[in-house]
Write a structure and sequence with these properties.
This protein is an all-alpha fold. About 55% of the residues lie in helices and about 0% in strands. The longest helix has 27 residues. The protein has 18 helices and 3 strands. The model has no long low-confidence stretch (mean pLDDT about 90). The chain binds acetyl coenzyme *A. Keywords: Acyltransferase, Transferase, Tricarboxylic acid cycle.
Length: about 400
């Protein structure tokens, strides 16, 4: 292997690769992705098989510990998670201090970081493997509760406590949608669709939020702080925020009269900052394998739930027009996973400000697995270099002599 620091000392060169388009930041045994061929595998298992056959919690185990669990291992994993689903009552009060219109991603990121203050054992980078694992289980268990409560808070609705006899996905839906005064039944179609969506989002190698988690963790910051940083990175509309941006774009097109061609023209106009949200991907340049799976799931859900929504008609038209257009074809711009995930979330009754929170819920096992791999592999602190382009040197000028 090339010793980069020796090479730099000898040559004085620094590699400049803005956006890290061709720079590997780490070695990883978690997720394999081939953007040209449209292949995605977790720990060697094709995403198509996992989405079809596995449960989200099984996939979480696979990503974090490296292999699919046996029945005993899975039972033990689920029962350990179940012990930690409650959130400290003092933390519950934090929610109430946020304004009702607070974006749930802002609340979620802050709440996850706050967990470190309630569990100080997470702060010690040299703690035992058992304590490290407890930190992981706590986070996996509490994120659905925190996510659902961030939504309840935005509605000023009463918080629902976890029902531990429910599985991971059903419990989350219950905490999101149940009300103390109503008898809430979780629809199995919705549970299945959400299970699939969470699996598809569970890891995606060194994307913006995952790289953030690894780089923050490389300073030996605790797991909660590292994941909180990942949640913030995910929030942006060019990353996880794209699913919310898709629905907002469809609403805009609808309110403007539904002329899809006009908006496609706008997206192609280089003087117009508008981009078609949910189209294009940094790595997939032929198709996004997750989009293929999710498109089918979206069709199934819409049919089973008998949903008739003008926004979905616009989405279908947009997909068709863009796929046939030379601008999009020549740049390999296809609908990505977020184009369809926003559509499914909307059909499931999940409000658009919660879409990126749903993404975070799915991505959590991947972030944890990547943080664990980074810390166990003893990676050095992440510290990129730069190519300086500013003034070389200047003498200080008193304020009266400036200008
Ligand atoms: N609409 C219109 N034009 C686009 C779009 C789009 N959605 N995406 C890319 N282009 C154009 C660019 O203007 C550029 O054109 P040019 O070559 O004439 O200058 C060309 O396609 C290449 O685009 P880049 O921005 O260089 O591609 P990059 O790999 O840096 O960006 C990204 C990828 C950020 C995903 C981009 O396609 C985009 O902004 N898409 C919309 C937002 C989105 O859906 N994000 C979700 C990503 S998936 C995820 O996070 C799970």
């Amino acid at each position: 292997a090339i010793d980069i620091s020796k090479l730099r000392q000898e040559t004085g060169y620094i590699t400049l690769d803005t956006g890290y388009k061709n720079t590997g930041a780490t070695m990883s045994a978690i997720t394999f992705l081939d953007g040209e061929e449209g292949i995605l595998r977790y720990r060697g298992y094709p995403i198509e098989q996992l989405a079809e056959k596995a449960s989200f919690i099984e996939v979480a185990y696979l990503l974090i510990y490296g292999d699919l669990p046996t029945q005993d291992q899975l039972d033990e994993f689920i029962s350990s998670i179940t012990k930690h689903t409650l959130v400290h009552e003092d933390m519950k009060q934090f929610f109430e201090a946020y304004p009702a219109q607070a974006h749930p991603m802002g609340v979620l990121s802050a709440m996850v970081c706050s967990l470190s203050t309630f569990y100080p054992e997470s702060l010690d980078p040299n703690r035992s493997a058992e304590k490290k694992n407890r930190t992981i289980l706590r986070l996996l268990a509490k994120l659905p509760t925190l996510a659902a409560w961030s939504y309840k808070n935005s509605m000023r609705h009463p918080f629902m406590y976890p029902k531990n006899e429910y599985d991971y996905v059903k419990n989350f839906l219950y905490m999101m949608f149940a009300m103390p005064t109503e008898d809430y039944k979780v629809d199995p179609v919705v549970v299945d669709a959400l299970n699939k969506l969470l699996i598809l989002h569970a890891d995606h190698e060194q994307n913006c939020s995952t790289s953030t988690v690894r780089i923050v963790g490389s300073s030996q910051a605790n797991l909660y702080a590292s994941i909180s940083a990942g949640i913030s990175a995910l929030w942006g509309p060019l990353h996880g925020g794209a699913n919310q941006a898709v629905i907002e774009m469809l609403e805009k097109i609808h309110n403007d009269g539904g002329d899809v061609d006009k908006w496609v023209l706008k997206a192609k106009d280089k003087d117009d900052p508008f981009r078609l949200m949910g189209f294009g991907h940094r790595v997939y340049k032929n198709f996004d394998p997750r989009a293929t799976i999710i498109k089918k799931a979206a069709d199934d859900v819409l049919e089973k739930l008998k949903i008739d929504d003008p926004l979905l008609d616009i989405a279908k038209k947009l997909e068709k027009v863009a796929l046939e257009d030379d601008y999009f074809k020549s740049r390999n711009l296809y609908p990505n996973v977020d184009f369809y995930s926003g559509i499914i979330y909307k059909a499931l009754g999940i409000p658009s400000e919660m879409f990126t929170v749903m993404f975070a819920l799915g991505r959590l096992p991947g972030w944890i697995a990547q943080w664990k791999e980074m810390s166990e592999g003893g990676e050095p602190i992440g510290r990129p270099r730069q190519v300086y382009t500013g003034e070389i040197t200047r003498d200080y000028v008193p304020i009266t002599k400036r200008g």
